[in-house]
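pasting for ref
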Amino acid sequence: MIELWAVGGYSECGSKNMTAIKVDNEVIILDMGYNVGRIVEYEGEEGEELTKLPYEKMLKIDAIPNDTQFHKEWGDMVKAIVIGHAHIDHCGAVRLLAPRYKKAPIIGTPFTLEVVKNTFEGKKIPNKIIPLNPSSKYKVSDNITIELVNMTHSTPQTSAVAIHTPYGKIVYANDFKLDDHPLIGRKPDYKRLKEISKDCIALISDTTRVELSGHTPSEMLAREMLNDVLMRYLHRDMGIIVTTFSSHIARLSTLINIAKKMGRKPIFVGRSLTNYLQAAKRAHIFSTDAEAFGYKRDVNKALRMANKDKDKYFIICTGNQGEPNAVLSRIANDETPYHLSNDDIVIFSCTVIPTPTSEANRKIIETKLLEKNVRIFKDIHVSGHASREDQKEFLQILKPKHYFPTHGGIEKQAAAAKIAESIGYKLNENIHILQDGQKMVIIE
């Protein structure tokens, strides 16, 4: 018997991802993520106290998956926790939830697990940690083997998780894109995906950008877009600030290279940027000699230095979603020693996460920046998520018997269902739309 429990991540985008698969009397948990919107509302991206809140408080403010009923019914059967990639809506809640299943090891790629370790802030992790390279397997029990299949996304070492069972394979690809020319790492392992398709029982995959037509472009395009915008200001003396996703190591690498081509010193300011760069270094996938400043006192010291010689520095900072306490918001609010002036450049190398909180925060910060007459460049970015044609291609490669769209809420799930219907799947027959807390038997 195989049963799926949609613990979290099915009712809205970018929130509390957590799925459990029960194979007879053994359970595998896939992801344990934060509700990013609630965290930003409560504390802000740079807030330090949030990381110290206990399980009960985080549950009360709806910042983590509600695993209360799941823990009662399936908790004693959990054999492993597998984290597919290093975004906090997938791994941020590990520090709070994993200790509730302390007999279960935490499995993930080296970079992903380094990010997970950061969330524990030096405290002892009660669970065993098992780093697994992409395209590797780990035998959990006589009946279950975990395989990490190399994929591409906007953070390194993203994997599709294949759960091998006596009944066939279940694939969990909750955040992916099909980038054949990634700047860091290898392209998706199409060969292995086709092999898995021979007995793929179910596919659980994200729908974040499912409404976008065509294919999602390669990260190579983002590199060219940034070059095109920035190099035209090669000999200008204005201040340059770029903000992007802290976990996007390939994008950060591009920005460092552009800064050096412009003859400017790149500096990273913001706690989450520092954490992800440290994780990349420890995982031996990326290292830089650029300075990074994490805590507020160090950030202000760096910004004071940059403010004196704006033409010599290239600031890469947190705040791409307009988070109230992030560095860019503090700059816009005149709460730092760095003062914006006419014709300074602010680049958002990102899109807005499609949640009400992020959309509202971005509108607020953009308005404040415009009032200071800075030059704003938005959406200098390519997504890390599969668009409509990628979604269709992924389904056609894996040919799952059952399809579970997730990570987008009901509207995006419905759009994904229409794509599946266009290639022969049928809603409520082999397309299944679940919401948080629901369960479903896949195989009796």
